[in-house]
Amino acid sequence: MKLIKIAEVAKDLQVAPLFTDSVTTQSIVETDLSKNFRIRQVNFGRGVRSKFHSHTIEQVLIVTEGKGIVATDKEEITVVPGDVIFIPAGEKHWHGATKDTTFSHLYVMSPAQKTTQLED
User: Fold this and answer.
1) Are 84 and 61 in contact (CB under 8 A)?
2) pLDDT one-digit tens code per residue, 57-103
3) How big is the chain by its Cα radius of gyration, in Å?
């Protein structure tokens, strides 16, 4: 057993084409602890979001702070701490902070997944 305190996990700055601005990520469970899944926290500044993308496997998001939006081509859902979002493999979606708040979520996925960015 290993106890991991998110507040003590280093934040790594991520500047990537998938995001509308930089975000920080925190590697909670990586492949050295589990071969089957990865858990990271993603921290978005006000109004920052991912661009439309999809994954080759299912993704689970667990909202930990702030207020965010998870969207597909058909709907946008406002989410708050405690909400859990299941995104099926292949579903085009984005997620990020509302314009007035920061937002953080954990994601749970397989290390073998592939992400395809669907928006420039």
Assistant:
1) yes
2) 999 999 999 999 999 999 999 999 999 999 999 999 999 999 999 99
3) 14
Partner residues linked to 3 by β-bridges: none
- Rounded to whole angstroms, the Cα distance separating 24 from 44 reads 7
Pairing of strands 76-79, 59-66: unpaired
d(C-alpha 69, C-alpha 6), whole Å: 22
pLDDT at 19 over 90: yes
What residues are paired with 54 via a beta bridge?
116
Please state which architecture CATH assigns to domain 6-117.
Answer: Sandwich (2.60)
What DSSP letter does each residue of 11-62 carry, written as one string? PEEE--TTBSS-EEEEEEE-TTT-SS-EEEEEEE-TT-BBPSEEESS-EEEE
CB contact set of 63 (below 8 Å; sequence gap of 6+): 79, 80, 81, 82, 83, 84, 85, 103, 104, 105
Is pTM beyond 0.85? Reply is yes
CA dist., res. 58 & res. 90, Å (int): 8
